[in-house]
Amino acid sequence: MRSPETFDAYYVETRTRLLHEAYALTGDAPASRAAVRDAFVVAWHRWRKVGQLEDRDGYVRPLALGRARRRHTARIWHRDKSLDPEVRSTLDALSKLTARQRELLVLNGISALSLGEVARTVGLPRADAERELQTASSQFSLHRDAPTTDIPRLLHALNGPLEDIRWPRATVIRRSGAARRRTHTVIGAGLATAALLASGSLVATGAGAEPTSLSEEKATPGVTVHAPVDDDAGAEMISADSLLAPDQLTRYGSGLDWTETATTDNLDGDGLLAPCQRERFADPDGVTALARTWDGTETRVERTKVGKGDRQRTRKREVTDVRSTAVQMVEMSRNERQAAQGFETASLWFAGCIDPRTQLMSTRTVKRVGDEARVFRLRSWGKQPATLTVGTARTGSLVVTQVVRSRGRAVPDKAVLTGLAAAVNGVCGSEGAGACAGRARDNATPPLGIGTPPGLLSVVDLPPVAAVRGPWVGTEPERARNNYAATRCDRTTFQGKGISKALTRTFLFPETPNANQLGLTQTVGAMKPGRAGTFVDQVRDRIRQCGQANLGTNVTQLASASSKSGDLSVWALTFEINDSQSFPFLMAIVRDGGAVSQLGFAPDRAMTMSRDDFVALARRVAERLGPLDSSS
Fold first, then answer.
1. Which parts of 333-436 are beta strand (E)?
2. Which terminus of the chain, N or C, has less C-beta within 10 A?
3. Nearest-angstrom CA–CA distance, 323 and 249
């Protein structure tokens, strides 16, 4: 039975929120209002079913947003003279995104949907949605000239032009929905009768007989058959005793006092317990989960001088600081296949960490720990620099993830492996567990693919730069018509016969004022291996000759390596503009088979990266080049 009171309450509660989302997608307030109104008319038409749904928004939202897109007039906000300039700028920036990027950004910033729900709404796998959302955030930040941290505020500010919109009463919506239902009933009955008469499927089976289909079997009237309900779903199947104890945390920081701060099923709050974590669970359809957090504190004695002259004395006091934090998460999936997907999702949280100013340092594959395992090392170079040490493993249908954030000395490599092995052995023998852990062995592997085009760097690869504000932000990859990674010495181009898949991308700090020259550019291309080797040799020759022939150019080689399969050369160049000014530049050329990349970094005053970091970045380029197909 339909409940008008429930519908009326839902309509009043939801209409403004859906209007806000539709307006952010289109910039067309009248079209958005009409679309939301029509969506509620359809909802009342179907209220017998919609009213029973746990997620009514999941039915109404696609109707409203889809109709808003079809109705709106392009860039209508430009004709609204009363529109606030800030709102107009936000809509302009949104209009420069693709339709899917815009929807991802809007739903993630305005709606209450989780990232997994946003992915399902836009029709993408969760991993693809995460990567597309990162691109959308970067592009919006550049077009809007605002930091990524301001995106939620700017999107929420779009409700300003909607405050004076008047809505029809709920009774009007219900009358429209009832009229729509009557119309559909009449049309549907006519079509059904015509179809049945045409097919001859009205078969009499005796007095009071009903039409039936040969593919259906009549059930007992009034009885609805449901699939069996798993009463144990969500029950606590992971024992708290299987998690690490505080004394086992000493391996993650000698001299620290480790204290357990919480053991929880992670159903409260936002569920984001660890750095780089993007969602509450790696497997949102899992059976159950358990998490434990710790603080590692250090106590030191502070001495301060008090008093003056002969009365001066030293005062001592103990100060306790949290120097490290640790998180252990264990998730149980319904089967090993879903657990394997959860393991990959958890791995991608860290391989493609979207936390600002966080760099992936290394990726290692671990053997003899569960069924599969990885270790990641990252560094955070914000106001409080820290090292992130991550271990994640799958054993059967269980996924174990450990993250340690250290402000002091990083966790030793051996401690990472023994700690992950201990965590897997803690759950070994539990329901759903698979292989246990033996003596762990690990080996360095290239970074995981995180959705960027083959060969190109991502923000997570980039090292710190001194004296900048905000995080690195990358532009959208584009065809390499121009190569801004080249110098006036080599003038390298990735255009020409035999070069394919040539792309270029630039990384900037849009939040840093007066940093016009600061930036990092990478250009990649694929060619035959022999041609690629000649290509690199030409760049090397031109750089060497430039340093010898031009007195105003200083060339310092920072690294060089060559083999049949690859090459790497890194230089620091200084171009003298006049007697008192010079322009520094860091440049690298890298080859892996037939894949070639040139990397150029232009510092600006004190805003620069260390030479060691740039050399390490060139080596990361070599790792990223592997997937670039060089056969064409």
1. 358-369, 372-380, 386-395, 398-406
2. N
3. 13
